[in-house]
Design goal:
Elements (H helix, E strand, L loop, with lengths): L12 E5 L21 H6 L3 E4 L9 H10 L3 E7 L7 H8 L3 E2 L4 E15 L5 E7 L2 E5 L5 E5 L5 E7 L8 E2 L6 H21 L1
Antiparallel strand pairs: 1-6, 2-7, 3-9, 4-10, 5-6, 5-7, 5-8, 5-9
């Protein structure tokens, strides 16, 4: 019997349901027993992912194709660590405040690692561990937050369609068109499918 082939993205992106602990936000916060979330389940929430060659991001044809296909014309880098990020303590606190954006949030870890937490359809937190070589796209309108893990370092490529707008809208902002569109596309759609199946 042949074992199922492992998704290569899982080497650089893993996800699980979080516990309710108030311990250090940089800890994994697994539930007991651990409850992992597949990358396909993340995709159902609109969270897209790729595994890329972070050692050769300047010449990576797959990254170039993703950027062209999705219209990511803007690119820069953000290093998050106490030594490199001005106003580190304030920024890391702001990143961890639950918020949404009116555009996609695209992050490609070219070094280090960190956690992106997203809400599932039932408002439970899913922790997404992004490591070197992982690229994720959080859809516009999804509530999320970011923190470093215990290594305290990530260098992320930030991509954007057109001129970047990094404005966070802290929860609650359910009245924004981006939030309404997210709910219609990824949350209400699923609820409707379950009702039809019943």
């Amino acid at each position: 019997m042949v074992a199922p082939q492992k998704d290569p993205r899982e080497e650089v992106i893993q996800a699980w349901y979080m516990d309710d602990s108030d311990e250090d936000q940089r800890l994994p916060h697994h539930r007991e027993p651990k409850e992992f979330v597949s990358l396909d389940q993340l995709a159902e929430l609109g969270v897209l992912s790729w595994r890329l060659d972070a050692n050769n991001y300047e010449t990576d044809e797959e990254l170039k194709k993703i950027r062209e296909d999705r219209g990511y014309s803007y690119m820069d880098f953000c290093e998050v660590c106490p030594e490199k990020l001005p106003n580190y303590e304030e920024k890391i606190k702001n990143f961890f405040e639950e918020h949404l954006h009116t555009d996609e949030e695209i992050r490609y870890a070219v070094a280090g690692s960190g956690y992106f937490d997203v809400r599932d359809r039932n408002e439970r937190w899913i922790r997404v561990w992004l490591k070197k070589g992982g690229l994720i796209v959080l859809p516009a309108g999804i509530y999320h937050r970011f923190t470093l893990d215990t290594d305290n370092y990530i260098k992320a490529m930030r991509l954007f369609v057109g001129d970047p707008i990094w404005t966070p809208f802290n929860r609650p902002h359910d009245d924004l068109p981006a939030r309404k569109e997210y709910l219609k596309t990824f949350v209400d759609k699923e609820a409707g499918e379950h009702a039809v199946a019943a």
